[in-house]
Prior knowledge:
By secondary structure, the chain is of the alpha/beta class. The chain has two domains: 1-47; 69-163, 2-Layer Sandwich (Nucleotidyltransferase, domain 5). The protein is built from three helices and five strands, in the order αβββαβαβ. The N and C termini lie far apart (85 Å).
Amino acid sequence: MGAAIDTGGDKKSVNVELNIVPYIDLMSCLTAFLLVVAVWVNIAQITIQPKGKNRNQPITEITDPPPVISVLIQADMMYVGVSRLAVDPVQVRKNPDGNYDWPTFENALIALKKEEAFAERNDIEIAAESTSAAPVKYDHVIQAMDLAVKVGFTGVGLSEPTSLSWRPTL
């Protein structure tokens, strides 16, 4: 707090000492808050595009969604299929040594990558369907993903078996 100290003369002293410690504390807290909020605002941004139609937007024709390659890995068989295209699904059997026929799987993906619908695209969905009686090994899922990336499908996604775009009819 400020105070006037008497100097002994007939006039009061004009020297006032302010205690600025509370102001420094307040400014340091506000500075820390400012820095945290500035970083949070930049990190927590969500870039979204509004859905729906604008009245100024030109009318475009509705297009069908593109075909999707789906891989379903089961304990004894692996299926490679395509949604929305008349492509025969590929069945990859498990060898007696416990591994799938990886060259057949890789050749199936190479053939699909050469298709016109997938030449410029890099997305593929993979799902593992295992039960307690017949589990799918984690190594087999990773091996399938690695081969898909090797062929050129860099947008590999792991999906739930029920949400695949294509499922084999058993």
